[in-house]
Amino acid sequence: MRNKSFFKYLFFVAILGIVISSCLKKKTYTPTPSIEFSEFVPYTDETADLKILFSDGDGDIGVNEGDSTVTLYTTYYYYDTVLLKYRAFLKTSPFDTLRTNYIVTAPSDAYKGKPISGEISVNLQQYRHSKKIKKIKYVVYLLDKSGNKSNVITSPEIIVP
């Protein structure tokens, strides 16, 4: 008699587990990467970490170790106190917007073909062109291995010391 009630209980728990697990949905993302601004951490030596959240439906974010393919692009904007608006920082020659390229390393081959999400931290070697600049923004986008371009994001206004 005792075994019957134990098996009924076990059967009930197993059915309940199956029902609950079938209700849980796995996260799905499109094969085109999606990014959003996470955080900007400035350091006293004029370097900073720019942190970006990402998701990708087929897990082909980043490149393998040693690959020099550029996958992340940033454009730096500063607040011009004379014009009272944000301006892209220009290269001195040929007077073009300065876009900085970064190589994002892939997390692991285990994610290939699977949905993936996480955070990318980019170390900016010089995050502003002058210490007089106190307000900045960054415009960022990401490419995956398939060449899919993410959405283009603009950071919120960043006040730096």
SSE blueprint and pairings:
Elements: H1 2-23, E1 34-42, E2 48-56, E3 72-80, E4 85-88, E5 99-102, E6 116-124, E7 135-142, E8 153-154, E9 158-159
Antiparallel strand pairs: 1-2, 2-6, 3-4, 3-5, 3-7, 7-8, 7-9
Instruction: Please count the beta strands (DSSP E, at least 2 residues each).
Output: 9
Unreliable parts = none
What is the chain-wise order of helices and strands? Answer: HEEEEEEEEE
Estimated share of beta-strand residues: 25-35%
| Portion of residues within helices | 10-25%
Continuous helix count: 1
Q: What's the alpha carbon Rg, rounded to whole Å?
A: 23 Å
> Averaged pLDDT, please?
84
Shape: elongated
Largest sheet: 6 strands, antiparallel
End-to-end Cα distance, whole Å, is 75 Å
Estimated structural class:
mainly beta
Explain how this protein is built.
The structure is a single chain. The strands form two sheets. Strands 3, 4, 5, 7, 8 and 9 form a six-stranded antiparallel beta sheet that branches. A three-stranded antiparallel beta sheet has the order 1-2-6, with no helix packed on it. With 161 residues, the chain is mostly beta strands. The chain has one helix and nine strands. It starts with a helix and ends with a strand. Helix content is 14%, strand content 35%. A hairpin with a 4-residue loop joins strand 3 (72-80) and strand 4. The radius of gyration is 23 Å and the shape is elongated.
Question: In a nutshell, what does this entry contain?
Answer:
With 161 residues, the protein is mostly beta strands. 14% of the residues lie in helices and 35% in strands. The N and C termini lie far apart (75 Å).
